[in-house]
Specification:
α2 packs across α3. This protein has a 10-stranded mixed sheet, sandwiched between helices. The longest helix has 23 residues. It is built from 13 helices and 24 strands. β4, α1 and β5 form a beta-alpha-beta unit.
């Protein structure tokens, strides 16, 4: 028997006025208004979320009051089908139109003097969706830890795709069953993976149309394609990305595309922070009880300025309330174990541009020197004994800041470790792993970049993963570990883990064409990497972008080696 708690809407705060706003199809969405007393025209911060506008999880009443105290009127709305809002509970389907219609209603109120949107995760996605809608009154958006393709599996166009995160289907079975939410923990030991969710649906006596649709052919509950955002009218956008956010893959997917679109590039601003998805900070990790903003009210009050002030500064500049938008730095980034910096571009012009070669046993190292001799390393992947994911909650990676040192001793994990730094080492830019890989279609490859302390503790810096849609036989695979700004302190070592699983955060691989949610674990299988020689497996950190390397590979027929890589630098 699963332990399931159903949570409905909290009470509307006394200082908020709830209204029902009609959409174009007659469905009414519930919203709380936080207005000046007496109401007067001001810019309006709109937040649209599926997590209860009045609940404790997203602390919207505190956020509404914070913006209000700084001269903004605020509208916080439950999205369609959630909590007090009417309509079907459907992920991502209605946010473009409902965002437009909500903004239109706001513009018709006497207390509105323009609209901006702010939000995290899904309620950051609703801001992006509203930008796609293109309402002329929407002046700026400030999405945090999110992206236009939130929760989808990205395809890379080179015979690989991202590995599916289990959180999408778990999310549908928690937040997108009906108007309420269900708090429960899946039993990840059940096989097939779908079984624990079937237990859940049987126990509550209902199902999630969003979950079931995942298995019924072409998925309906997906966001509009990135192309829709690129073709929408550009407006100022401040993207906040967490270095330790499990949703950062979708943030960077947007940012790379927007930065190459002339209209959007001129409007794009970045804030890169040492946070995870739940806004826990590296400087506080692991999180003590007095620093847990989810449980300690004083910790929440301490968190709010750093959480909201960057968006207020941005909105103030866009609206001409104070400051000058052209004077704001295009990129502000936090160096892990270091300080805040500013740049006009990302990666910054002082990015590392370093290449580490993977060397074979007995050293199994990361080296800046070339490895002239070719060698092969291999591991046996057992789907019945997957490599565990770091931490208990992928959305709160910094809450417990797991030590991954022991995982490197598993026989199915290849750990390549560099030398200890004498005076520290700063790593800035995109992180890309190039592997000469032999593996069948359907295989997964997971890579983790680690900071190894003098005592042997190993802590995650960045990670990336791919699923092969085609077999590789000593061919180059490109693994995107996204981006970093990280100071490796004196005496610490850089290490890289390569393996085939990261569970339960990601599904376990299955043969091509098989469904990882319905299949039972397969037999152990060997994977191989070729190291050294003229086409070495290597890790690159700097200004090179993984999608550029993939294009070079496609153009040149799996091009590899120094010449092809030099061609794509910059």
């Amino acid at each position: 028997m699963l332990n399931i708690k159903r949570v409905g809407p909290a009470a509307v705060p006394e200082d908020a006025e709830q209204v029902m706003i009609s959409m174009r199809d007659g469905v009414r969405l519930a919203a709380d208004l936080y207005l000046t007393d007496p109401p007067r025209p001001a810019a309006v911060v709109l937040v649209r979320l599926p997590y209860d506008k009045d609940g404790v999880y997203c602390f919207m009443p505190q956020i509404g009051r914070y913006f209000l105290a700084r001269g903004y009127n605020v509208v916080v709305q439950d999205v369609r089908g959630k909590y007090r809002s009417e309509g079907a509970t459907e992920f991502a389907v209605h946010e473009v139109d409902d965002g437009y219609d909500t903004i239109q209603w706001i513009t018709e109120q006497p207390w509105c003097d323009g609209v901006v949107m702010w939000g995290d995760s899904y309620y950051g996605y609703t801001a992006i969706a509203a930008a796609i809608g293109g309402h002329p009154a929407l002046r700026a958006i400030a999405p945090r830890v999110t992206g236009s393709q939130l929760s989808t599996v990205l395809e890379y166009g080179d015979g690989t795709r991202d590995v599916e995160q289990t959180s999408r289907k778990a999310y549908f079975a928690s937040h997108y069953v009906d108007a309420d939410r269900y708090e429960w923990e899946p039993d990840w030991n059940r096989r097939p993976l779908r079984a624990t969710f079937e237990d859940f649906f049987e126990q509550i006596g209902k199902r999630s149309a969003n979950f079931d649709d995942e298995f019924d052919g072409e998925a309906r509950f997906v966001p509009p394609p990135l192309k829709a955002l690129l073709e929408s009218p550009p407006i100022p956008a401040l993207y906040t990305i967490g270095w330790f956010d499990n949703c950062a893959v979708w943030s960077w997917h947007d940012v790379r595309a927007l930065s190459r679109a002339p209209g959007w590039a001129a409007c794009l601003y970045l804030r890169l922070e040492a946070i995870d998805h739940e806004n826990y900070r590296l400087v506080d990790a692991p999180i003590a009880s007095h620093n847990d903003h989810a449980a300690d009210r004083a910790a929440l009050e301490r968190m709010l300025p750093g959480y909201l002030d960057p968006a207020i500064e941005f909105f103030d500049a866009v609206l001409g309330r104070s400051g000058d938008l052209t004077a704001l730095p295009r990129v502000r980034y936090e160096v892990c174990h270091g300080e805040w910096r500013e740049s006009e571009v990302w990666p910054p012009r002082q990015a590392s541009d370093v290449e580490y070669h993977l060397s074979p046993a007995p050293s199994a190292g990361l080296t800046r020197d070339t490895v002239p001799e070719t060698g092969v390393v291999q591991w046996v992947h057992n789907p019945s004994d997957p490599v565990p994911s770091p931490g208990a909650n992928p959305f709160a990676a910094l809450f417990d800041r797991s030590d991954l040192g022991p995982i490197g001793r598993r026989p199915d994990v290849l750990r390549f470790t560099g030398p200890a730094t004498d005076a520290g080492l700063e790593l800035l830019g995109a992180v890309t792993l190039l592997l000469r890989l032999s593996a069948p279609a359907g295989a997964n490859v997971h890579a983790r970049l680690l900071d190894v302390a003098p005592d042997g503790g190993a802590f995650l810096i960045a990670r990336g993963q791919i699923r092969l849609d085609v077999p590789l036989a000593d061919d180059e695979a490109v693994v995107d570990l996204q981006n970093i700004a990280y100071r490796l302190r004196a005496g610490h070592r850089l290490a890289l883990d390569v393996t085939s699983s990261d569970f339960p955060e990601f599904v376990i691989d299955t043969p091509a064409g098989a469904d990882p949610w319905s299949a039972t674990p397969g037999e152990p299988a060997t994977r191989r990497i070729t190291l050294g020689g003229s086409q070495p497996s290597c890790l690159r950190i700097g200004r090179w972008q993984p999608d550029q390397l993939r294009r070079a590979r496609n153009k040149d027929g799996n091009a590899s080696g120094t010449a092809a890589r030099a061609h794509e630098k910059g």
